[in-house]
Amino acid sequence: MIDFSAIAASQLPRLLREMPKAELHIHIEGSLEPELIFALAQRNRVALSYPSVEALKAAYAFTDLQSFLDVYYAGASVLLTPQDFEDMAWAYFQRAAADNVVHAELFFDPQTHTARGVPMASVFQGLTRARERARTELGLSSELILCFLRHLSEDDALATLQEALPFRQDFIGVGLDSSERGHPPEKFAIAFAQARALGLRCVAHAGEEGPAAYIRNALDVLKVERVDHGVRCLEDPDLVRTLVERAMALTVCPLSNVKLCVFKSLAQHNLPQLLAAGLKVTVNSDDPAYFGGYINQNFLELFEALPALGAQEAYTLARNSIEASFISLLQQGALIARLDKVFEEAASSVR
Ligand code: HPA
Ligand code: ZN
Asked: What is the predicted pLDDT for the residue at 249?
């Protein structure tokens, strides 16, 4: 048993940084830093509509999800070759390892690339090479989750799934992202049924900007195993009961939610209420290059803004991230033992 009361508030920032954690909600294209966007634009002779890194950064003043997506897709337009995808993902893995991320499940948006004529094989090749390096050089395990863009048609999603099948061994699941409002989960019922039949794990963004009903339909129609964001679930007590009963994980992204005006400030974020309701909440970075920080920045700023969050909550959030991941129970057990050790040492002030 960890004695959380023996951990002083002053130890918390270090504990948040050092605790081993899994990241389950990161769009790899959203890890593309402005400097790398410009370097790749130059390397590939791609014209950007922003004259400088500073001008690009100045565009990072978002008012909602769509205003972000417009800039995010422009940034991703510099990615052409396997090397570009490898460089992008390798940069993320190095930052994640520095934050003590021990396992990461990465979203990627193939339609954003294939629509520009980039071969599906280039996307997989680059990401797979970076994953291999992360495993051998950083001890960081990872998986890929192929996201369908929900503003496009289901036929487009189905064609994308077919195109990805030669690389079936390189991805573990499918997700659903992009513009949420007006594109409910049920639009992709057939694509998700096909994915399930292929043995793919299913997750979906729901209840970020969209209503609680989208979360309900992600569960009932898409049969998702995790809900990405899901913060609007509190609007429907019946839904909360279902989510708690099923121990359904929510991959919450605090800095993203503030940047995209889902909440006015971190102090007003509903994460403490989600935890108090018994929901299996995790903390993630979403699009760290655009939203002001990687996973530890999310933890640190969140705990700074919400004094109700302490060592017990830090432990719960890290443990949830491991338990909600798609790694085996055996590997989960090993990671939880590492997590316990970090907290036990903090509680006995060995360090
Ligand atoms: N929400 C929806 N789609 C996305 C996001 C997001 O935060 N990031 C990249 N695609
Ligand atoms: Zn997201």
From this structure: 98
Q: What percent of the chain has pLDDT over 70?
A: 99
Full-model pTM? 0.98
pLDDT grade for 349, boundaries at 50, 70 and 90: confident
pLDDT of residue 202: 99
Coil, strand or helix at 121: helix
> What average pLDDT does range 153-174 have in this prediction?
98
> Given ligand 1 and candidates 65, 73, 111, 285, which is best to mutate, with the most ligand atoms within 8 Å of its CB?
65
Q: How far is the CA of 257 from the centre of ligand 2 (A)?
A: 10
8-350 CATH? 3.20.20.140
Secondary structure of 165-192 in the HEC alphabet?
HHHHHHCCEEEEECCCCCCCHHHHHHHH
Query: Of 3, 23, 1, whose CA–CA distance to 295 is shortest?
Result: 23
Please report, for the chain, the start and end positions of each structural domain, with discontinuous segments joined by +: 8-350
Which atom of ligand 1 lies nearest, measured to the CA of 287?
Answer: 8
Helix (H) or strand (E) holding 19: none
Residue 351 predicted with pLDDT over 70: no
**How confident is residue 291, by pLDDT bands cut at 50, 70 and 90?**
very high
pLDDT digit string, tens, across residues 221-230: 999 999 999 9
pLDDT of residue 326: 98
Grouping H, G, I as helix, E, B as strand and the rest as coil, residue 78 is coil
Q: For the chain, how long is the longest CA-to-CA vector?
A: 58
Cα separation, 33 vs 200, in Å, equals 30
134 and 95 Cβ atoms separated by less than 8 Å: no
User: What DSSP element (H or E) covers 316?
Assistant: helix 311-323
Q: Specify the ligand 1 atom closest to the Cα of 29.
A: 9
Is 208 catalytic? The answer is yes
Instruction: Convert 291-329 to b/e letters by CB count within 10 Å (16 or more is b).
Output: bbbbbbbbbebbbebbeebbbebbbbbbbbbbbbbbbee
Residue 351 burial class via C-beta count within 10 angstroms: exposed 0-12, middle 13-18, buried 19 and up: exposed
